[in-house]
Amino acid sequence: MNNENFRSKAEKEKNRVALTSVIAAVVLTLFKLIVGVSTNSLGILSEAAHSALDLIAALVTFFAVRYAAKPADEDHHFGHGKTENLSALFETVLLLITCVWIIFEVYERFTVKSISVDVNTWSFIVVLTSIVIDISRSIALKKVAKKYNSQALEADALHFSSDIFSSLVVLIGLGGYLYGFHYADSVAALIVAVIVIFISVMLGRRTIDVLMDKAPKGIKEKIENLVAGIPEVAAVHDIKIRNSGADVLIEMNIHVDPAMTINEAHEVSHKVEGKIQTVINNSRVVVHAEPA
Questions:
Q1: pLDDT tens-digit profile of 18-64?
Q2: Class assignment of domain 219-291?
Q3: CA 103 – CA 97 distance, rounded (Å)
Q4: Cα distance between residue 272 and residue 270, in whole Å
Q5: pTM confidence score
Q6: Which residues have a Cβ under 8 Å from the Cβ of 147 and sit 6 or more positions away?
Q7: Phi and psi for 64 in degrees, rounded to 5?
Q8: Would you list the domain boundaries of the chain?
Q9: What is the CATH number of domain 3-211?
Q10: Alpha-carbon torsion 241, 242, 243, 244, what sign?
Q11: Edge to edge, what strands does the sheet with 235-244 contain?
């Protein structure tokens, strides 16, 4: 599949999975909010707040994926790919805001408020439903994110993955409350916040790495092995790699036989570019040929 067809297919799949995530986030947010308010469970309400921010994040991801697919123009010579990375950074901030709110509420309930939680069948139904939906969305998002090297979708997948763990903790908290441990719900909410902070730090570090043009691991070695298999290339050096959204931007210098004509050296450069692009999807390669 050539790069153009690959990009077209990628755009359709990414838009579809991002839109499905928006719909899932709407359903989960409303369901958790209704049950959380009716039962007065901080664990479920914290999950509702988490899902509400997931909804915002899913919407941001949906529009970021669409905007990032726009081709390069006069103002953006390398395209709009980093919109995906900015979207992931925005999602990190949203996750951290959620944590601050949850921790504040837990502190209030431990020190000031005395609130009764009505644990009933619906409390467990909403959490179990959330886990099922979160697992399906997380798997779908991770699959497409890995396939097309999309950090925005990967960030969205992390949101849904964090929901799985936090929902399990809330489930345990509700069970504890039924057996007389009245602080179980608040403790569960606090554990949710810790999980979300951990996920946020992981996501934030990787997003900042991309925005700072940190070279992705493993690709340089892969390129060196690929180019080593081309007999016309005597050596390769100054390999520079950076990500921009789903795109991998690669620059390098190769040494060729000084007896080659300009056209022959140009053909070798094209051969190198083509070989790399067949192995590294969404790669844009610039090769400079010089005499050995």
A1: 888 888 888 888 888 888 888 777 767 777 877 787 788 788 888 88
A2: alpha beta
A3: 10
A4: 5
A5: 0.64
A6: 10, 13
A7: -65, -40
A8: 3-211, 219-291
A9: 1.20.1510.10
A10: negative
A11: 235-244, 247-256, 283-291
